[in-house]
Each structure stands twice: as C-alpha cells, then as structure tokens.
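chain below, 107 aa
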Amino acid sequence: MMNQNQVNFHVQYQDITSQHWSFSSERFAGGDHLLTALSRGWEIDETVHLKRHWFAGMRCIEIFHFRIERDGKTVDMPVVSNPYVYRFIKTHDIDIIEDDTNNEPAQ
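prediction:
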C-alpha cells in the first residue's frame, strides 16, 4: 500500500477533500472522492485495474478500480477516468492492469 501526502494533490485538485463516496449510494466515484479518501487516511494499492465499458459498440467509458485500505478494511473504489485521474496514476507510478472482460466494442 502507498501512503500519500494529500497536500501534494491539493494543488492539482481544488479544495474538494470533503467529497464522501459510498458504494451503497453511488456506483462510481470521481477523482475528488479518491482524493477525499486519501485525505481521510485511506491508502491505495500500487496497482489499479482498468475496465472499459462499451456502449452501442462505439462509445467507451473507462473505470479504474482502486483498492483502498484503512484500519484493516479493504474497499474497491471504481473511479471514472478523466485527465486528473490519469495524471494521478502517472505521477504516482501506479501500475495499470487492463481487464479483458468487455474490453472490445460490440460488433
């Protein structure tokens, strides 16, 4: 698990470290939810799983599944991709594992 200093992210994403996320209320999280979790003491794994979801064979949504852990509890946080999330992954040397399931557009 990587222990991150949330102050490093503060410059990249405005003051939004109060965006609580719960799978029971929202299916997907945003980069702001990930940042909030880190500021609240959650740690992320050094690998993330990428799943692509194709719609009508022509539109793709990418979801990064971050494994976060705190106090012995582990949670899968599915985060919708955007430029901030890509930059976060790149600047923190997080490995991406692509999931082949539903990875190709429908014919």
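Residues 31-39 form the longest helix (9 residues). The two ends are 39 Å apart (CA to CA).
thats it, cya
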